[in-house]
Amino acid sequence: MQSIELTIDSSIATIPVPVTAAPTTTTTTLLASVLAIPCRKYDTITALAYGMQFHHPLASSCGTTNDHRGSDALVLNLCHTNNDTSQWTEGPNVMSNCPSIPLYTPIATFSRGAYSGNGGISGIFLGCLPDGFKIAVQECGSNVTILNLGHGGMFAHDPNAYFIVRE
User: Fold this and answer.
1) pLDDT of res. 104
2) Are 125 and 35 in contact (CB under 8 A)?
3) Digits of tens for pLDDT over the chain (167 positions)?
4) How far is it, in rounded angstroms, from Cα 97 to Cα 159?
5) For residue 74, which of 23, 27, 49, 138 is within the disulfide window of CB 3.0 to 4.6 Å?
6) Distance between CA atoms of 109 and 155, rounded to whole angstroms?
7) Any idea what DSSP says for residue 165?
8) How many helices (H) and strands (E) does the chain have?
């Protein structure tokens, strides 16, 4: 067996190594500028698990009552939105952009660019389905639940009628 003698020099030499930085690119999407108002994830999950019902003094009322328990009460309580729903504006269409919409985004039905709490529905986006999407809603005077909206539904149950809520 042979032995090898290794001598280590105590001086350390530095060798400059050229470094080439990879170019960085920033990808922006249509939705990036309109998704600054997410809803509170864990509060949404809790509301669904316990079948809670929300009231908000600025929410629409159900029928002739003055109970302020319309579908917008859920969004007004759990999302970072303007409390004046007349200031909500129509963002991108949910069905056209479904795969790129973050979960827990406030969405609503809009008619001619305006949200109508009476007859319309607002809720919290929960994900895409093959022919629609899931939404957490509190339909007028009901407990919070999940609706699976698919093709063939009429106005408030038509997935094509939903848009991201912008302020």
Assistant:
1) 97
2) no
3) 554 444 444 444 445 545 555 555 444 455 545 455 689 999 999 999 999 999 999 998 887 777 888 899 999 999 988 888 989 999 999 999 999 999 999 999 988 888 877 778 999 999 999 999 999 999 887 999 999 999 888 878 899 999 999 97
4) 12
5) 138
6) 8
7) E
8) 3, 7
CA nearest neighbour of 144 among 64, 80, 73: 73
Q: Cα separation of 80 and 93, whole Å? A: 19
**DSSP conformational letter for 45:** H
- SS3 string, 66-112, reads CCCCCCHHHHHHHECCCCCHHHCEEEEEHHHHHHHCCCCCEEEEEEC
Helix (H) / strand (E) containing 41: helix 41-50
Supply the pLDDT for residue 8. 47
What is the C-alpha separation between 67 and 59, in angstroms, rounded? 9
Q: What is the predicted pLDDT for the residue at 141?
A: 75
Q: Which DSSP symbol is given to 142? A: S
Write the CA distances from 41 to 3, 45, 74, 116, 127, integer angstroms: 66, 6, 13, 25, 13
